[in-house]
Design goal:
Mean pLDDT: 89
Strand content: 15-25%
Shape: elongated
Number of strands: 15
Helix content: 25-40%
Largest sheet: 5 strands, antiparallel
């Protein structure tokens, strides 16, 4: 590395003016970092200071990166973990510019740092069989605005090529949506992930690029926490409102293997549903191809979508799923097949009549058989249309297959009367309590009513 005389020449100072600070950082620290990482930290440090991109100047043998901010004190530049970063800065570990200087020195570049009234450089020197980082610095007697870093030996074109498309700010035209989670990017930023405006990694096959506000990228800043990333990207998709862009995005979500289409946290706004209906019409959706035959058999148009998340989001925005369609179709078929008590044959009517007589004697339900029939609140449906019975809140429906004997009819009628009267669903504590009370009361009725028992 440098000799004392070389360092004095670099700092343009006398031996008396030059000061030395030995660190405990070896030259192997951040061994995986190279030129890009070093430039990233310097560039980022300036952006954090001024909220603007720094100025880059130089030639084929020198690159200078500087800003016009408040600058650094000597301790802020040299002491690991010490930082003057503002809130919401990209950097937060207090080591970026320090380690960047080490990396560049390790790569045999000459580093000169100037700020306020001081100048400094880095040297790598032997210590007990290892090489460690050593600072040399001096007061200049003149004031340097901001922080200025000169990298001797680095071609400015090489530096610019490494930095190209690696930093973004509010002035770029490719920002197409913005929210608290971050920004959706288009154009040359597609397929790239940024955090607070700084490149993190490539995403692979994506519809957009993303600049996220708050993800953990680690100290190497080249890896994003997958779940944090998916959550923020999933939610930020709701920010898309341009209909032409939404239409194109929807097609790619549904018909291509993209990162967004497989995201388990994706959120879509209602514009996606509107555009879906424009393009695909009244198509029924599902992630399960096996549901196609049921939908088509019932006269529907079917479309398979890559993930349950997309199916769920489109369903919540008004697109019909296969299960909804089949249920609606069956319900319509049932409604068309319903008939009142006059449609029962003699045996069915007798069993129904006896069962309701017994139920009325329990005095558990406000409405009698005559009340239900008069109000159209009890209806029947033929064989193969319904497994047993149901109550939709406005009426009770009983399948005639359950009117073959009194015990079976009692069971179905009492259950649906509980649902209808008390408004409780199956497998609830309230339902089970009413069911148990009915069993106790009907048992008492049967033990007393020999007339009815004889007819069962």
């Amino acid at each position: 590395m440098f000799t004392p005389e070389g360092i004095q020449h670099l700092l343009k100072c006398t031996p008396e003016q030059m000061q030395r600070l030995t660190t405990t950082i070896t030259s192997k620290y951040r061994q995986q970092w190279g030129l890009w990482e070093a430039l990233r930290e310097i560039y980022q440090n300036s952006r954090d200071e001024t909220r603007k991109n720094p100025i880059i100047e130089g030639d084929d043998n020198k690159t200078t990166i500087y800003d016009l901010g408040d600058g650094l004190t000597i301790p802020q530049f040299m002491l690991l973990g010490l930082s003057n970063k503002k809130e919401n800065s990209a950097g937060k570990y207090g080591e970026g510019i320090k380690i960047a200087s080490l990396i560049l020195t390790r790569m045999d570049y000459e580093i000169i740092v100037k700020s306020r009234d001081w100048i400094a450089t880095i040297n790598i020197e032997p210590f007990e069989g290892e090489n460690i980082m050593v600072y040399y610095f001096a007061k200049t007697g003149e004031y340097t605005e901001g922080c200025r870093i000169e990298i001797n030996g680095l071609d400015i074109e090489e530096a610019k090529e490494l930095l190209e498309n690696k930093f973004i700010d509010e002035s770029i035209s490719e920002i197409i949506a913005t929210g608290v989670e971050g920004e959706i990017l288009n154009g040359k930023y597609v397929g790239k992930l940024y955090c607070k405006g700084i490149y993190v990694s490539d995403l692979g096959n994506t519809i957009f690029g993303y600049n996220l506000t708050n993800i953990d990228t680690g100290t190497d800043r080249n890896f994003a926490n997958p779940q944090q990333m998916e959550v923020q990207i999933g939610y930020i998709m709701r920010r898309l409102v341009n209909r032409e862009l939404v239409a194109d995005t929807l097609v790619r979500l549904l018909e291509e293997e993209t990162y967004e289409g497989k995201n388990d946290y994706i959120k879509l706004n209602s514009i996606f549903a509107d555009e879906f209906k424009k393009k695909y019409g009244d198509v029924v959706i599902s992630e399960d191809e096996s549901e196609k035959s049921d939908v088509v058999h019932k006269g529907g148009k079917f479309m398979t979508i890559p993930t349950y998340r997309l199916v769920s989001e489109l369903r919540d925005n008004g697109i019909v799923t296969a299960q909804q369609y089949i249920r609606q179709y069956d319900m319509k078929l049932r409604q068309e097949s319903l008939f009142d008590v006059s449609g029962l044959d003699e045996r069915q009517y007798t069993i129904y009549h006896k069962s309701m007589r017994l139920i009325e004697k329990t005095k558990m339900f406000d409405k009698t058989r005559n009340d239900l029939e008069a109000n159209g609140e009890i209806m029947f449906i033929g064989q193969n249309k319904l497994a047993g019975g149901y109550s939709d809140g406005s009426k009770i429906v009983i399948c005639t297959t359950k009117l073959n004997n009194v015990p079976t009819a009692l069971d179905v009628l009492s259950e649906e009367l509980i649902h209808f009267t008390y408004g409780c669903g199956d497998v609830t504590n309230e339902f089970e309590q009413h069911r148990s009370a009915f069993i106790r009361k009907i048992t008492g009725v049967l033990l007393k009513d020999n007339d009815v028992i004889g007819g069962i």
